[in-house]
Here is the input.
Amino acid sequence: MDIKQDQNETLREYTARFNLAALEVPEAESQIKNCAYVRGLKPGLFFDELQIRPARDFDDIMSRLPGYLQLEDARMARKAEDNKHKTPCKGLPPRVPPPQAEGPPRQQRTVNEVTRFDEYTPLNKTPEEIFHLIKNQPFFKAPGTYRDGQPQQGPNNKLCEYHNAYGHFTKHCGHLKYQLEFLVRAGNLHQFIVRRNETQAQRPQQRNVT
Ligand SMILES: [Zn+2]
Here is the structure.
């Protein structure tokens, strides 16, 4: 009953030590062992698990343990890898890269590919008009390349006020259109969404954006 998980002791080590000690008291009932095990456990994932879903008995604890041992191993491997200087950690599995998302790897995608939705919600004002109405709202974010002051130079005289840069007109800014759709989906632009009872004539003409 006095076994306690040491601060530096892993779940695996603590459980092994606990089970070894339990062999000395074969008459101890599963319920008692359950209580003693949880009492000695230091705060952590498995501790949390047993607080949220208390174990019926010690066998129940043992049946839930393997997943948490794996989790512990994975966390330790990651920690070791993050802390390692030059020497690889023996016996620890290499970090598995996350599964590739569909499509080309992120860094190979062009800006247009990642800032484009498949479908856009019909709006009752043009992107440029909406931009001027909401540009000072807290939910509105300027693009990462935005700089206050004089517009940034570009390949032509077309000024985009959203980017504060020359290169294309605000009304043709695909990035702005993307941000507006993003905000529509986040619930910030209710008042600009075309309702079903609005007539077709009230909708602005759809423009192609580049
Ligand atoms: Zn722009």
Q: What stands out?
A: Residues 160, 162-163, 168, 173, 175-176 surround zinc ion (CB under 6 Å). Confidence is low (pLDDT under 50) at residues 104-113.
